Amino acid sequence: MSMDRRLFSAGMVAAASASGGQAPRRTNAPTPTSVPTGPLPYLAGNPELARFNPLKRILFHDDFDNGINGWAELQANHNGNLDDLRPLLKDMRPPQLSSCTFFDLGTHGSLSGTYSLKLATRPKPFHTAVGVKRFTYAKPCKVQMEMWFTYKAEQTFDGDGNWDGNVSPSELNFGDFTISNDVSEGEAGPRYQCALRYMNTDLEGKSLQKWMYKTSLHATTKMERQGITAQTDDYHVLKTTDWADVPGGYQPLCFNEIATKVNWHYLRWVFDIQTRRNVELQVNELTMDLRNIPVPVYDQGYRSLNHLLNLLVDVRTHKSVRNFLFIDSVLVSVDA
Amino acid sequence: MVRRSFTAVIEKNATFSAPFETEPYETGWAEEARWFVRVLELDGQLTLTPQLSPDGLFWCDDEKVPMVVRDKGLYTLSLRDFGNWLRLRGEFARASSSAKIMIYLALKE
Questions:
Q1: Are A148 and A268 a contacting pair, CB within 8 Å?
Q2: pLDDT for the residue A37
Q3: By CB count within 10 A, which of A5, A126, B34, B35 is most buried?
Q4: Could you report the per-residue pLDDT of A276-299, keeping only the tens digit for each?
Q5: Residue A271 region, left (φ>0) first, then alpha (ψ -120 to 50), else beta?
């Protein structure tokens, strides 16, 4: 246990005990691009790392029992006056260290230990909470982000009893979550963003449970100051409809029936800074080949972003119900 | 290992003109907490009461004396033994009041 002070944990979730949070073995999953090459020797005997499948070099391994690890609120640009924050990005909420404590069962804890990173929206339709990890890249290469995550809508108390005892209406209170990047080669090169969204429900609250990718880029501060007006319901894109289905991306995840039982999921996303493309996305049993998916590129250069490499995670509610994304741990590795 | 700390910006230049509660914030890992409220504009008198919760859903006032804000400036209030969730409740002494404020929550192990 890395954090000295611990909360009482009423019970360990099944995935955290005997299974040790095993990642899907890569030999069992279709891997169209076969990015990982096999367990690295130093992973043996280290269950905190062995649940990941890193590429050649690990850049960082963030276990949120150790603290916030540099995952910060996404902050809009300003010139010292916070009144100038653009509405689209003015309120992305500070990340939290969560013990997954609920009103009915107490503390759930994380996959290992007690704490996970929590992003929490306001109870306001289309409000989004965004966490960003900011670093830079040394040379163009493949980058792989892996994480163990779960997602929930806040418990509500307006149930009408029309419930089959299995699928909770609260599952339909969860909107979507997205993993994305922001890569810039500096003044001489392009700036682009890959974004992959798990759309749990559509904007009317009907179940979708599929992966999507964005087909446009959000308006930057620079673009807004040049006269482009941004919508405020989806910070990723220019128009809220600028999303397309990932081929083969239908995937029911394990919400586990009610709002207070959390089951951790494994996610592995690879993108390539050399080709400026996604490579693949694996979530539990499903691996999606993303190499042919177009990646939108800004049509102007950006100064002071030389070799920028940002990774982002966000959660967006579609209703007046808080939505949460919990991340037990993250590992980012590169192949060079 | 040095002791961990974290400052959350709970509100940024937000203007309130009616009673309000800040968003729930999880604090179980911290031993001490300190609210900072920077009042940028104020019309009326604002009382800020720290609230505690076992679950982020149901809330009660902390036993401490609340902060009473009568002018612009930086105000603070510290807490210990607060459980796992914190928020601030704000209310004005009279109707037709307003306040523009920054709210920080500074946490330490």
A1: no
A2: 56
A3: B35
A4: 999 999 999 999 999 999 999 999
A5: beta
- Residues contacting residue B18 through CB under 8 Å, at least 6 positions apart: B92
Domain count, chain A: 1
Three-class SS state of A169: helix
Interface touch B56/A99, C-beta < 8 Å: no
A1 is a domain residue: no
Describe the strand order of the beta sheet including B32-43 as a list of residue ranges: B5-16, B98-108, B32-43, B73-80
Instruction: Find the domain containing A228 and state its range.
Output: 14-334
Other CB atoms within 10 Å distance of the CB of residue A167:
13
- Which pLDDT tens digit goes with each residue over A1-16? 445 555 443 333 333 3
Which residues in B lie closer than 8 A to residue A93 (C-beta atoms)? Answer: 23
Asked if B109 lies within 8 A of A115 by C-beta distance, the reply is: no
Contacts of range A80-87, beta carbons closer than 8 Å, 24 or more positions apart: A82/B12, A82/B13, A82/B102, A83/B13, A85/B12, A85/B13, A86/A221, A86/A224, A86/A230, A87/A230, A87/A232
Helix (H, G, I), strand (E, B) or coil at A132: strand
Which helix (H) or strand (E) segment is B32 a member of?
A: strand B32-43
pLDDT in tens, A223-241: 888 988 889 999 999 999 9
Smallest CA–CA distance from A121 into chain B, residue: B23
CA distance A135 to chain B (A): 20
pLDDT tens, position by position, A41-83 = 777 778 889 999 999 999 999 999 999 999 999 998 999 999 9
Domains of chain B: residue spans and CATH? 5-108 (2.60.120.510)
The contact set of B with A (CB < 8 A) is: 1, 4, 6, 8-10, 12-13, 23-26, 28-29, 31, 54-58, 84-85, 102, 109
Confirm whether A91 is domain-assigned: yes
Task: Report the residue from B6, B23, B28 with minimal CB separation from A68.
Answer: B6
Calpha distance A201→A283 (Å, rounded) = 18
Confidence of residue A214 (pLDDT cuts 50, 70, 90): very high
**Which residue type is seen at B2?**
V
Task: Collect all residues of chain A within an 8 Å Cβ-Cβ radius of residue B23.
Answer: 93, 120, 122
- Say if the Cβ atoms of B13 and A83 lie within 8 Å: yes
**Following DSSP, what letter does each residue of A227-296 receive, concatenated?**
TPPPPSS-TT-SSTT-EEEEEEEE------SSTT----EEEEEEEETTTTEEEEEEETTEEEE-TTS---
